[in-house]
Every structure is written in C-alpha cells, then in structure tokens.
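User: Is it possible to get a 3D structure for a protein together with its bound compound? The compound here is pyridoxal-5'-phosphate. I've pasted both below.
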Amino acid sequence: METTKHSIPIAKPFLAKEEFQLVQTALESGWISQGPLVAQFEEDICRFTEAKYGIATTSCTTALHLAMLIHDIGAGDDVICPSFSFIATANGIAHAGASPQFCDIDPETLNISPDECRNIIEGNYDSNLKNKKTGNKLKAILIVHQIGIPADIDAFNQIGKEFGITILEDSACSIGSAYKGKPVGASGNTSAWSFHPRKVITTGEGGMITLNDKDKAERARRLRAHGASISAHLRHQSASTMYEEYDEIAYNYRMTDMQAAIGIKQLERLGWIVSRRNEIASHYNSVFDKSNGIKRITCKDYVTTWNYQSYPIMLEATRDERDEVISKLDKAGITTRRGIPPIHKEGAYNQTSGKGLVLPYTERLSETVVFLPIFPSMTEEEVAYVASEVKAVIS
Ligand SMILES: Cc1ncc(COP(=O)(O)O)c(C=O)c1O
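Assistant: Yes, that's possible. Here is the predicted structure of the complex:
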C-alpha cells in the first residue's frame, strides 16, 4: 500500500467550532490575559475531578513547581518520583531546589512501584527521614499516572500516612481516567495537570493544580501571579478601589483567557474523546492479542477508566530491534514514539541523584516500549492500517 510520509501522526488534538467561537468571545471581551474564563475553567475542572480548588497555570511543569512550594518543599529536601516519566516530573521538583530520588516502576502497570518506594524509604532514610548519604529530608512522593493509567493511589496514601510524608500526583496525562470509581484528582492530594496538545484535552500550553487544602490553594493562587494578595480579576470586579500587597517573591505562571476558552470547550467533549480513544484501543487490543512478540498493558482492577492518553506496546526485542520497528513503521507512513527515556540517565541528573543508579524495569521498558498513533479523529481505516502494519512488521 502506498502512503505519504507521516500520513498518520502520533497525536492530533480535536478542536471544533465551539473552541474557535469561545476564543473569539474572549478576544472580543478584552480579557486577553487572565480573567473570567480562567476562573470558569478552574471551576469546571474542579467539578469534573471532584477537587475543591483549582489554580490554572502556564503548564504542568509550573504547576508542579507551585505544588512543591505550597508544600514547603525546597533546598535540602528529597522527593521520590519515577524515572520512567517525562523529564518535567523531576524538573518540577528541582525547580523548587529539592532533589528527585528516582524509583523503579512495576513493569505490569508502567507506574511507580509502591513496594520499591517502600524499599527506598526503609533502605535509604533513617527514622527521622534523613537521607543516610546526603542528610536531606524526605518530604514527599510524587506519583505519576503515566500515560493516563492511574497509579495505585491508596497504596501510596498508606505509605504517606505510615511515614508521615506527603503524596503528590503528577496527573499531566490523566484527565478523564478514574481510580476505584472516582476521577483521578478526587483523592484530595495536590495534583498537577497538563493541557499540552499531546494530552487528552488541550489549551495549547497550559496546566493546573487541584487540591483540597484552602490555605495552600490561596498560596498557589498568589505564587502564580507575582505574589499579589488580590488578583487582577477581583480588583476589576470590585466597586471600591483595592490595593494589592506582595509578601513573597513569586512568579508569573498565569494561564490566559484565550487558553481557558479552548479548555472549557475541550472539557465539554472529554467524555466523547475518552470513549473514542477506548474504541481505538479495543481495536488494537483485539489484533495484538493474536500477535506474537507484542505485549500490551492489562489494567489492574483498581483502574476504572484509562483515558488512553497514549497506546503503548511492549516488544520482545532489543533496543536496536525496537528502533528498526520504529523505522519500518515510519517508512509505512506511521509515526510512533520510543518508550520513555529514563530521567536518571539524562545529563541533567546523571551526575547528581541519578549517578550510578540502576533501575532495571525502567531501563528495560524504555528500550522496548513503542507508542502507536491514537487520537479521536483517527478513521477506522487508519486504525486498521496501523494495527495490520504493526503486526506485519513485528510478527
Ligand atoms: C508525566 C508528565 N509530567 C509533566 C509533563 C509536563 O507537562 P507540560 O508540558 O504541561 O509542562 C508531562 C508532559 O509531557 C508529562 O508527561
């Protein structure tokens, strides 16, 4: 079959006239920085995720940074996180001055392993949670719901309770996923979300923190906007003159109303997006279950919904063989992505907390995972073509 190069992309956001119209409304209103639509988007996300407070940001990376700051995590502190994640997971920790401590994953779930996490705490820290090598204090575990697969939140909350450490959630990929019948975000833990176009819903760039703690939410709101005690939106709404104060050095991590306009309309179609992604995944599953050499993820019982932010297959192959598969699919017009490169091996961390670290599952899976195209507007023909080409190239 003849195809043009890259005729099927790895991902494609679904944007329709409703998004365009609300962006136009935002532009016409004059609120082109942060205003009422950001406030509405925050409320909508809170309603959907069952979190009490939402603070929209410029990205998940900046949301993660704020998450660290509001939990008083900074220099001299350690945060455990997976290495099998996008590097922003660790950067969010490092931006606050803290040190990411990388933990291996469970190869069955692709998520940070609760058992391994416990081993790290018991092996590397004393009874006061001081790192036996560096003297740093262990403050938190940042779990990641990788590619939208919910991690075992209850298992981590139990560890948090037992050792007196905070559980934070990198929910960048997981809007629309559910854990034990509840949406990701409903745990009450501080969660950071991404609305980058590779995610299930998008605002172009954009992110959010959700949480249930009022004081921390207020601090995040201030830190996002230069530390101002009153937001511009509130000042403009007020009948009397209001003067803001600045008590701490802060940031400009504000989402704009144009971005929020897109997000509001995207969230309205999230149910359809997730079910369409599940339909595509079911087709892939039915083909790959009958194929040799391809392993797929089978979710644990606690996963009520996987939003299929990405569709991974695990090959029984060496890294070179995996790269050969990627290259053959590329020639067939199918864009794929290699499995997640381990953060602890990257130059940014391999001389600090990643130095000398061996994480067998993370390292193995990063060499054998391939992500296939999955996006709502994929046609049935495209889905069937990708499945049959992948099967033909691998079997
Ligand atoms: C797990 C994870 N965390 C954080 C991020 C960073 O998101 P953003 O691009 O919105 O900063 C990503 C983006 O791919 C991600 O996958």
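The longest helix spans residues 270-288. Residues 59-61, 85-86, 88-89, 144, 170, 172-173, 194, 196, 207 surround pyridoxal-5'-phosphate (CB under 6 Å).
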